[in-house]
Specification:
This protein is an all-alpha fold and about 325 residues long. About 75% of the residues lie in helices and about 0% in strands. It is globular, with a radius of gyration of 20 Å.
Length: about 325
């Protein structure tokens, strides 16, 4: 979106009387440009993806997953998670519905990992911030993490670690995807409004933090804490990201600014993945439906996977940028 960057630069220079290359002008340019870019992409992408989602409501997704078993079911769950993008907290009710409907625990956890971590809108946004190679590599490792996580949990036979009420929860029968074109349009439009209502503040906060990092936090400080030569950088990024709650749209500008300051791409992606897959609010909600051993197993598997992915991207990421 070079045209947008140039337009914002003109606004900062001629409208605000600031140098877009200066610290204050650069921060304002970063903020306005990223907010407009993300909102434009979100509007178009959410509408398009929601139209696709209208063919895969939760009940239909449950039926599709119920037709498969084993590794194939985990792979299908991870793939369906990419076209049914829910934040980690809103994935919990689906986890309850899938489990109460009799789906294997590994399948529901594969979906639970994939859904907030990888979705079509985030792929395109990630490509717009970095490039398509990074975006597709992120998708691949996210799906692998979801499949492996679901498979490991399945092998551990942890069904007894799910709270009893989950299995007794009523399964709501929802629309099976047979909608008119007008209904699909209304659904997609409503999804745009609903998701915007949920994420706009996180986008503004994320872009604001990104602008501050990009133009106000000294590069030497960032490098000393999270530089590519620091072995602990991925661990710190993962631990810092876990208590937060945001979706990938709010974390992307922060990751962009961190990489611009010399932070490894793997460290930035580890932060993003920890925020989206292991946020503290979602873990609190998950603790309500599973017992502590299963919760710790889930957190341990996902956190370990994120850390490994971070180090792998730090090692090979420069070849992808």
């Amino acid at each position: 979106m070079q045209w947008l960057s140039d337009l914002v630069a003109w606004l900062v220079r001629d409208g605000f009387g600031l140098d877009p290359a200066g610290r204050l002008g650069g921060s304002i340019h970063f903020f306005i440009y990223d907010v407009i870019k993300i909102f434009i992409l979100l509007g178009v992408l959410i509408f398009t993806i929601s139209w696709v989602q209208s063919y895969f409501p939760p009940e239909r997704t449950r039926r599709i997953l119920g037709q498969r078993q084993g590794l194939g079911a985990n792979i299908m769950a991870a793939l369906l998670g990419t076209i049914t993008p829910f934040c980690s907290c809103s994935s919990i009710p689906l986890f309850i519905g899938f489990t109460s409907a009799g789906l294997p625990l590994g399948v529901t956890f594969a979906f639970l990992i994939s859904s907030p971590l990888v979705d079509l809108a985030s792929i395109i946004l990630l490509a717009s911030v970095f490039n398509w190679t990074i975006a597709l590599a992120y998708v691949a490792v996210g799906l692998v993490l979801a499949v492996l996580g679901g498979t490991l949990i399945s092998r551990m036979k942890m069904e007894g670690q799910v709270e009893a009420f989950v299995f007794n929860s009523p399964v709501m029968e929802s629309d099976d995807g047979h909608l008119t074109r007008r209904q699909r349009f209304d659904f997609a439009r409503d999804q745009v409004a609903e998701i915007f209502g949920k994420v706009w503040l996180y986008v503004l906060i994320g872009v604001g933090i990104g602008a501050a990092i990009h133009n106000w936090v000294p590069e030497a400080f960032i490098s000393a804490l999270l530089g590519q030569d620091k072995w602990w950088s991925v661990l710190v990024a993962t631990v810092v990201g876990m208590p937060m709650y945001a979706d990938i749209f709010g974390t992307l500008p922060i990751a962009e600014a961190l990489v611009g300051k010399g932070v490894g791409i793997g460290t930035a992606l580890a932060f993003m993945m920890a925020v989206t897959a292991l946020s503290l609010p979602s873990m609190i909600m998950l603790k309500r439906v599973v017992k502590l051993p299963l919760l710790l197993l889930f957190v341990g598997i996902v956190a370990t996977g994120i850390i490994v992915i971070g180090y792998v991207f730090n090692a090979f990421g420069p070849m992808l940028l």
